[in-house]
Design goal:
about 240 residues, Rossmann fold
Length: about 240
């Protein structure tokens, strides 16, 4: 076991599938107790079942400013402490010309990808002690750009700026915050996976390794960032892309 998280409590949003679920399973396997959330009740319940009984889970919507502090409060009530936060919940993009982008689409992405991360982090900070760590999910689209992805890129570039600013704010308190920027990952919500066929092939061809990444490969990096092995990493945005071109 590379890291020992026994006695630690990790809160994960968007834990019902994909990177969130894989990270929940990884962190639990390293000894931590989990508090998990997802907007889909059945999905988060299944993740809870996979982890085991010593877990707190709830169905909620992190785009709600009321739901975020309630989730953190419920975590403290159920588990007594908080050490790690993984802000994973988010909405993947749909390619849309800006002139065709509705206010509803803009509001949905900003509320979940940006406001949710902000609200969970704000609620968690008073409960975090020196040695605690936060990891946010950005994207390769928060580092590079693509046409017809302007709103999604806006939210993910925003996550990177938020992470770097909070690193300066929380670092003196002994709390680290970093972000991971995944490339094309084989998850149920990846637009290429949903489309299948040539869409998957195109994503694979854009990776230097000739394949999509797995959710478990992202989870491994998140575990490292939580660990003392990454004790001087603060404000970093770690690209996990297989060498995306």
């Amino acid at each position: 076991m590379p890291y020992d998280f026994k006695g630690k409590v990790c809160l994960i949003t968007g834990a019902g599938s994909g990177i969130g679920r894989a990270t929940a399973l990884k962190i639990a396997s390293l000894g931590a107790t989990l508090s998990i959330q997802d907007i889909n009740h059945d999905s988060v319940s299944e993740t809870h079942r996979m982890i085991g009984e010593n877990t707190y889970s709830e169905q909620s919507d992190i785009s709600s400013s009321e739901a975020c502090p309630k989730f953190v409060e419920n975590t403290i009530k159920a588990l007594g402490r908080l050490d790690f936060v993984f802000n994973c919940a988010g909405i993947n993009p749909t390619g849309i010309d800006l002139t065709d982008t509705t206010d509803e689409y803009f509001d949905k992405l900003v509320a979940t990808n940006l406001k949710g991360t902000f609200a969970i982090t704000r609620a968690a900070i008073p409960h975090l002690k020196p040695g605690s760590s936060i990891v946010n999910v950005s994207s390769i689209m928060g580092v590079s750009v693509a046409s017809r992805m302007s709103v999604y890129c806006m939210t993910k570039f925003g996550i990177n700026g938020f992470t770097k600013s909070m690193a300066l704010e929380l670092g003196p308190k002994g709390i680290r915050i970093n972000a991971v920027a995944p490339g094309y990952i084989d998850t149920p919500t990846n637009a290429g996976v949903v489309a299948g066929g040539d869409a998957v092939k195109k994503q694979e061809e854009k990776s230097g390794m000739g394949r999509m990444g797995t959710a478990a490969e992202i989870a491994d990096v998140v575990a490292f960032l939580f660990s003392d092995e990454a004790r001087y990493m603060n404000g970093s945005v770690v690209e996990i892309t297989g060498g995306r071109t």
